[in-house]
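# step 3/5: fold
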Amino acid sequence: MALPMHPSLAVHPGDWLKSEVVDPHGVSINRLAASFRVTRQTLSNLFNGHTALSAEMAIPFEKAFGIKADTLMRMQMTFDMAKARARAGDIIVDEVLPAA
């Protein structure tokens, strides 16, 4: 049984990648974008938490920095679930009755 994680501990993978991986390596966003063959805006949106990390974006980080894409995708899923659970009280579900 997995232990529940407090939503405040969920970190957007983009924020984590920028502060814990990209910045310590001294790589500029422009240089990284060119290396990944994406726009600077694409990385900026990810690093600022405006877009989710996709599998297609996790793989370049794995190739460039050695961080498993699977781990990064689990970070994204954990972040998404924490956001959804924070709004769980607003999610209304009608009763589902078994078929007759």
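# step 4/5: annotate
The two ends are 34 Å apart (CA to CA).
# step 5/5: archive (pending)
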